[in-house]
């Protein structure tokens, strides 16, 4: 019996073995939790350290409660409360106005504002030098002067106070800064036009200072005959003022102007801050030092080797424009060398750490510190290389196989070849010196993960130290990495702008008008979108003569009348035009004259299905006097070729699948009337009275060649068109007609669908 019991016990243990760790874990966890609970509770007579009466109790402890768990009277403020929303029904409802930008609503401020004090005598010299050297490094910079010259230099924002007295200029400048920028910026840097300031160092300084303190930072100087502890910031070396200090100082500016007498404006401002706020100038604060250097006469910046000069944040006095440019060149070279040294240090650290990674040294990419090349997951993601020589490019924007290398592409290739030679000479000199004979082959591609990549096959002549030369071919690889991403400032636009739709119609478009009007009514009129519609009836001369007997657009006008009856507040005007050649530019000329200059046009086609999503993008992507928008619509394929008698796929599952973005069509466009009129005026001056030129142009060509605006052309998934065979007018120019034919051909079906249709046709013919 004993062996049988042992066998049963062994079988039971074998069955419980998989769950044994779970049981042990639960038991151990319960035991530890009970033990921890006993420790935390302790004895019944022991007081917690934070309880009242305990020697270690603090007055700022937890909220006291009575025995029933309710708060002790007098401590209700510690209990969180939910304040319900209540609106007085007797008061009219007032809509809450939101700010333009979220940073305004959240109370965010810009970092740094810079004010440059100049004069009428130095505005066109030193002030211009400041503007050309450091102005573009600061986020916002203004120039303040007493009297302005007749012509303000280009690219400078100037504020003239009308008086050249130094104290008055300082008083008016501080008052102006507080009034216009006091609520927008955290820091205010004030300098003179004979001061050279390292912009990047100033910006780095304010990022390390706390904005919660009253800061008056600069080169501290003693008052003549005054208290040694009271110091002012020397204006020649610039000084930094915090927003909190400016807000406290502003109420006392009038008193300072009337009570404080001084010759120097910086002394006057320092005395005002000390007398009314009790804050003296300091040269270091929160571990940050304001380094300055006083420039002697006839100083050559390239030969200055003092450590104080190399570390200077501001240099004064700068006597002329040439000295300003020399200083800028010198300090720019110092920053550039410092950046290169930091890059080398980082690359060395990356090399040292790479051996510790799972990939080992094999995971080290070239160049060190730059992202690895993009690895395609399928053949459709392979980034192709563009072949080029020194004269020609074999991947042209217009699709032709070969075109001349010119413009930015030519400058790019020349710079890359020069850079390759420079790198080779730096590596092999003084043993070898290379010179270019010829570029044998050139390849380049843009990798969105790292930048532009180049591979060059160079025919070089190598010369040794002894003068012996040898011709050899060498392949080099180069990368132009993506640099720091910058946010380009754009003018403010809103989705509340009214859109004026313009729909040109010919006789061939009559079968599609009903669907267009139905979609327009459903997506704009029913939703009360801020959009209007104007129809443009294009009559053939023959139809125009018979319009009194038979109007080819009578059905469309009847549909428009039905819409106006259904929507009483809506009026849909139409314009009748007689022409054999419906030039897009000529038609737009007629429409433009009948609308205000601030009208936002959307030039549509009859196959367009209007929706609110696209109209909002039309509003946001079109900026007056800045940008026009030419969307690339999605064209569905011919269902007879794609489905071949099968049931059409639902739009929800195959949205944007059975079709393509028609890059040959420029029929849709969003632009402002003022921008069109400006470009059209330049076009008229160019072509004079040769109106036949307009027949070979579209609105896109007008903006491309006769306006300096940004042309934003992008695929638009919200602009979907059903398949329809367009009628191409042979009277148009050869280019426009060819583009229309290509659009029809590429819109038939994809290559796989066309191949399947041919295969089925051959099978049917063979049987």
Automatic annotation (TrEMBL):
Record has Lipid biosynthesis as a keyword: no
GO cellular component: Golgi cisterna membrane
Bilayer disposition of the protein: Single-pass type II membrane protein
This protein's name: Hexosyltransferase
EC number: 2.4.1.-
This protein's UniProt keywords: Glycoprotein, Golgi apparatus, Membrane, Signal, Signal-anchor, Transferase, Transmembrane, Transmembrane helix
Organism expressing this protein natively: Smutsornis africanus
Chain positions covered by the region annotation Disordered: 43-74
Lineage: superkingdom: Eukaryota
Family: Belongs to the chondroitin N-acetylgalactosaminyltransferase family.
Class in the EC hierarchy, top level: transferase
Signal peptide: 1-21
Subcellular location per the Swiss-Prot or TrEMBL entry: Golgi apparatus, Golgi stack membrane
Example GO molecular function: glucuronosyl-N-acetylgalactosaminyl-proteoglycan 4-beta-N-acetylgalactosaminyltransferase activity
């Amino acid at each position: 019996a004993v062996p049988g019991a042992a066998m049963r016990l062994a079988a039971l243990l074998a069955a419980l073995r998989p769950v044994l760790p779970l049981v042990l874990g639960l038991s151990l966890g319960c035991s530890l939790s009970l033990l921890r609970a006993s420790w935390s509770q302790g004895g019944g007579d022991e007081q917690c350290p934070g309880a009242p009466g305990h020697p270690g109790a603090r007055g700022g402890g937890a909220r006291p409660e009575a025995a029933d768990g309710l708060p002790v009277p007098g401590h209700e403020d510690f209990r969180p409360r939910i304040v319900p929303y209540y609106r007085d029904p007797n008061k009219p409802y007032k809509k809450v106005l939101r700010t333009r930008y979220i940073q305004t609503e959240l109370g965010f401020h810009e970092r740094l504002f810079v004010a440059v004090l100049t004069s009428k005598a130095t505005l066109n010299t030193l002030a211009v030098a400041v503007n050309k050297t450091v102005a573009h490094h600061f986020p916002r910079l203004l120039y303040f002067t007493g009297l302005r010259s007749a012509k303000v230099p280009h690219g400078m924002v100037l504020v003239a106070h009308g008086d050249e007295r130094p104290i008055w200029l300082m008083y008016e400048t501080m008052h102006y800064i507080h009034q216009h920028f006091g609520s927008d910026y955290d820091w205010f840097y004030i300098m003179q036009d004979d001061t050279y300031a390292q912009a990047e160092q100033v910006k780095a300084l304010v990022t390390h200072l706390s904005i919660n303190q009253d800061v008056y930072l600069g080169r501290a100087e003693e008052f003549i005959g005054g208290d040694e502890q009271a110091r002012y910031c020397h204006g020649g070396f610039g000084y930094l003022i915090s927003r909190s200090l400016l807000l406290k100082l502003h109420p006392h500016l009038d008193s300072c102007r009337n009570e404080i007498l001084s010759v120097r404006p910086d002394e006057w401002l320092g005395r005002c801050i000390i007398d009314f706020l009790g804050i003296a100038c300091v040269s270091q604060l929160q571990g940050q030092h304001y380094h300055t250097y006083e420039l002697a006469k006839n100083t050559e910046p390239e030969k200055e080797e003092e450590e104080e000069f190399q570390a200077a944040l501001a240099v004064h006095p700068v006597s002329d424009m040439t000295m300003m440019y020399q200083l800028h060149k010198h300090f720019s070279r110092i920053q550039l060398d410092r950046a290169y040294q930091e890059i080398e240090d980082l690359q060395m650290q990356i090399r040292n750490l790479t051996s510790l990674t799972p990939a080992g040294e094999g995971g080290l990419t070239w160049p060190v510190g730059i992202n690895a090349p993009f690895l395609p997951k399928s053949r459709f993601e392979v980034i192709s290389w563009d072949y080029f020589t020194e004269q020609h490019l074999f991947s042209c924007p217009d699709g032709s196989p070969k075109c001349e290398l010119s413009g930015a592409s030519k400058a790019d290739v020349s710079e890359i070849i020069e850079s390759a030679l420079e790198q080779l000479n730096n590596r092999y000199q003084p043993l070898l010196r290379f010179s270019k004979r010829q570029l044998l082959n050139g390849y380049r591609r843009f990798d969105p993960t790292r930048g532009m990549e180049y591979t060059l096959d160079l025919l070089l002549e190598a010369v040794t130290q002894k003068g012996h030369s040898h011709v050899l071919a060498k392949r080099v690889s180069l990368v132009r990495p993506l640099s720091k991403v910058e946010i380009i400032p754009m003018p403010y636009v809103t989705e509340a702008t009214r859109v004026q739709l313009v729909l040109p119609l010919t006789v061939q478009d009559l079968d599609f008008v009903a669907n267009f009007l139905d979609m327009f009514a459903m997506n704009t009129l029913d939703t009360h979108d801020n959009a209007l519609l104007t129809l443009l009836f294009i009559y053939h001369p023959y139809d125009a003569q018979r319009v009194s007997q038979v109007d080819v657009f009578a059905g469309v006008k009847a549909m428009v009348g039905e819409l106006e009856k259904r929507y009483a507040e809506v009026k849909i005007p139409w314009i009748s035009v007689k022409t054999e050649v419906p030039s897009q530019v000529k038609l737009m000329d007629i429409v433009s004259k009948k609308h205000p200059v601030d009208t936002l046009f959307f030039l549509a086609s009859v196959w367009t299905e209007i929706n609110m999503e696209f109209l909002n993008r039309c509003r946001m992507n079109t900026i007056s006097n800045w940008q026009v928008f030419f969307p690339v619509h999605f064209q569905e394929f011919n269902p007879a070729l794609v489905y071949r008698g099968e049931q059409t796929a639902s739009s929800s599952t195959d949205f944007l699948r059975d079709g393509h973005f028609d890059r040959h069509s420029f029929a849709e466009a969003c632009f402002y009337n003022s921008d069109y009129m400006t470009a059209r005026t330049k076009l008229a001056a160019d072509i004079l009275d040769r109106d036949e030129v307009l027949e070979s142009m579209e609105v896109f060509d007008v903006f491309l060649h006769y306006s300096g605006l940004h042309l934003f052309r992008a695929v638009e998934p919200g602009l979907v068109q059903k398949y329809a065979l367009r009628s191409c007018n042979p009277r148009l120019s050869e280019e426009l007609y060819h583009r229309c034919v290509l659009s029809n051909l590429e819109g038939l079906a994809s290559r796989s669908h066309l191949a399947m249709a041919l295969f089925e046709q051959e099978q049917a013919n063979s049987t």
